[in-house]
Specification:
401 residues; 6-stranded parallel sheet; 6-stranded mixed sheet; 45% helix; 15% strand
Length: 401
Amino acid sequence: MGNVSRRNFLKYAGLTGGVAGLAGLAGCSGSGSSDGGSSASGDSVKIGVSIWSSTDALGKLSVEIIKKAADILGVEVITKDQGHVSEQVTASIEELCAAGCNGIVVCNSADSEMTSAINTCNDNEVYLAQFYRMISKENSADVYAVAENSQYYVGAVHEDEVGNGEKLIELLTADNADAYEGIQKGARNIKLEAWTVGDATFQERWKGYKSGVDKWNQANPSDPATLSDPQYANTSSTEGANVTQQFYNADASMDALIVAGGGGDPLVGSVGQLKNMGLTGKIRVASTDFLDDLKEQLTTGGMYCESGGHFCDPLYAFLMVYNACKGTESYMPAAGDFGKEIKFPYVFVSSVKEYEDYEKYFVTDAPYTDDEMKELAEKDFDALNTAATSLSIEDVKTRHA
């Protein structure tokens, strides 16, 4: 076996089994930390997590569910926070490869970073999948081609971002009797706060916002809604607050703000700035990052509606990479094939009651039991994709009734 590549070594090392493979991994070390973790022993799998933050609301939940799955499967995990700064994103991939990871899951900030990320993984024979992100074939054809030609790019797990954007506009423009009393009337003058220029996920959400406004205006020509051009706040709460202040200074008639994303901190900054300005309960705020205090914000008018990817994108990206590391046939990348894609349904919350159901089934308890996690890890890709796309509050309520 002296000439066996790392890619094939994992297959020969006995990591291809279903239940037997899981049992063999059960004695391996658990999750590492962002400072490098401990060395894996024997034939264990080590998977790196490159994420904008492991401490904000969404980032923390994302890392926790990966670590839960890793503990169940006996996988060692190393996390690297990179702040959605391009240089740090690419450096994190290099560091995780150098740390001996067999696979990596990454939430990058822009398509351009993925060329370096994929090439680094190719050079080190490390499997790679994206979560909360995809590579745009339309806007980043060169990067997409790099992914297609890689034997280590496993794929991407993301949401239907255009549909998400359309739905948030639908919720914002519609009257909502369950909202805080001061903002029950639908919005018409909507401002858009983005995070990073060139991010494929934001571009798709933006398409949805514009499409949603167009649909509203076609159906309501005498009561039109407007959407501003995006202003960028990166992933900082301070910049989120500044963008919000600038929007209001330029147009005090604004009645809604979409904080498109950025990991949660920009939303915290924007909601906090509106409170400082005495505008809580007067301007409708929508976002795609769930706040830790969302129930309170819905009660007080700090938030009008939110959508969330229920932090299972990183779980499914982790399971895809895990199976590639094991050599499971349906997950193995091939040159000329872009890789696998899972498109998650979003969860939408626009009232306290809706949030209470989300909190019970996605925050207080994980949406999957330990046994269900093991079952997911043993599925082929088509079955895993079916499980992902059926996940909803109602699905979890039915399974756990």
